[in-house]
Amino acid sequence: MAKDRSDLDLDRELADLPPELRWREWMRRIEAVLFASASPVPREDLARVVGQGATVDLLVEDLAADLEGRAFEIAPVAGGWMFRTRAAYAPAIRAAADVGDQLLDLSEFDIAVLAAVAYHQPITRDGLKDIFGKEISRELIGRLHARGLIGTGPRSPRRGAPYTFVTTEQLLVAFGLDSLRDLPDREQLVDAGVVGEAPQVDFG
C-alpha cells in the first residue's frame, strides 16, 4: 500500500520541463535508484520512475555514456542493471579499504564445481562425482551454498530422491553476468580442464 502511495506522489511525466531537461531528470532518477540498490534493478522497476514515453534502455545507455571516464560503470547483471567499480580500480580498492568480507575467496576447484553445476543443473552430488571422478564433499557444497552461489533445486527422480543443486542470481552478480548465456563456451572450459567431457547427467 505504501508503495502505491509513493507512486502517486511521484511526478513521472514531468510535463512542465522542456524535453532535454525532462530526459536528464529521468536519467538522474535511474542513477539514484541504481546507486541506492545493492542488487540488480530490473527494467520494470526502473520504468516506475520515468514517464510512459521514456525508454529505459535508452536512458540507461545515455547514463552509461555520461559515466565514461568515471571509476564506476553501469553493468547489465542478472536481467537488470547495477553500478560496479571498473576492474582497473580493483587494486586501489584492495589497497585502501578492507574488502575481505566481499571477496569470494574461491579455489580453482570451487570454480570448477560451480561451472559444472551451471552447465549440468539441476545436478546431484553423485552427478558431480561422475564429472570429476571423485566425491564432492558436503563441506564444499555447503561453502558454495553459504556464499549464495548455488541453491537447492528439485529433488532427483532417482531412488532416495536426492537433492539437486542449481546456480543462483547471486552467482550472476558475483561474476558480473547478465545471464547464464554469458558463461564461456562449454568447449572452451573443457579444453581448459574446468569442465569434464561427461555426457549429460540425468539428475546425477
TrEMBL record:
Keywords: Cell cycle, Cell division, Chromosome partition, Cytoplasm
Taxonomic lineage: Bacteria, Pseudomonadati, Pseudomonadota, Alphaproteobacteria, Rhodobacterales
Source organism of this protein record: Primorskyibacter flagellatus
Pfam family, one: SMC_ScpB
InterPro entries noted in UniProt: ScpB_csome_segregation, WH-like_DNA-bd_sf, WH_DNA-bd_sf
Protein's GO biological process: cell division; chromosome separation
Family matches, as Gene3D superfamilies: Winged helix-like DNA-binding domain superfamily/Winged helix DNA-binding domain (1.10.10.10)
Key word Cell division present: yes
Protein name: Transcriptional regulator
PANTHER family: SEGREGATION AND CONDENSATION PROTEIN B (PTHR34298:SF2)
